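User: Predict the complex.
Assistant: Input components as received:
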Amino acid sequence: MIDKRWVGRSFSRAASGYDRVAALQRQVGEGLLDRLPAGEFMPKSILDLGAGTGYCTALLGKRFPNSSLIAVDIAEGMLSIFKQRSGLQEKALRICGDGETLPLRDGSVDMVYSNLALQWCPDLSVVMGEFFRVLRPGGVLLFSTFGEASLCELRNAWAKADNHSHVNTFASKSAIETALTKAKFGDVSVLNEQCVIAYSSVNELLCELKKLGAHNITMNRPRHLTGKGVFRKMMEAYASAMPTGRINATFEIIHGLARLPSN
Ligand SMILES: C[S@@+](CC[C@H](N)C(=O)[O-])C[C@H]1O[C@@H](n2cnc3c(N)ncnc32)[C@H](O)[C@@H]1O
């Protein structure tokens, strides 16, 4: 069971520095829009779930200037930074809320967009069910999330240092497909790609994760401070698995497109 208030607080604390380190998030969010069906798709209303500081909501606003935008995020702090983003204040309705219990009426939006937020919703069938509930018949769901191979190098390095779980786990592509089908979405298309980012040190990677607000939410996470010796062991294990001297980190990006059947 994830403590959602804790997730909200972590992201709120990270909010003011988030945009400075969220290059991958911006790149994935932009690419996601390319997956939209070509032609005359003109949603009247769009939900951006886990909207964060609003970068992608602004992209949606440019792509669909006549649509009304609803940005939902669990972190008040993220929504405060969002409020300062130029051009969005009057255009987007901001709501602090949880993707697993969306504060929206049934059948009230034409499109749900969510960029790299679903990895924080542990029960995918619940969140997909919520997307299905709030979409109108024929509505479109477009999302990205991290897949199970993400941060595998860091996870392996920690496994060599102690028995705790130090890195979040991510859903597999097939688990995501199953959740979409269970929720009764049609035209389901889920793709994945591996993105490998090189860091100068393990510390640089850990610092970036911290600045993004991405804290460890696994059940078996250590409840005490990790000792220096264990930390050093992890760093050595990470470095010794890297033949190039650079510290590579894998991010598996999963993109999904699905549609509610038309009545
Ligand atoms: C990595 S950020 C992505 C933000 C934004 N979509 C972007 O592309 O920059 C993840 C966001 O999801 C939000 N979030 C996490 N769990 C959530 C939940 N259960 N419901 C709504 N938002 C959530 C966080 O507060 C954070 O703003």
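The pocket of S-adenosylmethionine is lined by residues 4, 7, 11, 22, 25, 29, 49-52, 55-56, 72-75, 78, 98-100, 115-117, 120-121, 212 (CB under 6 Å).
Let me know if you want any component modeled separately.
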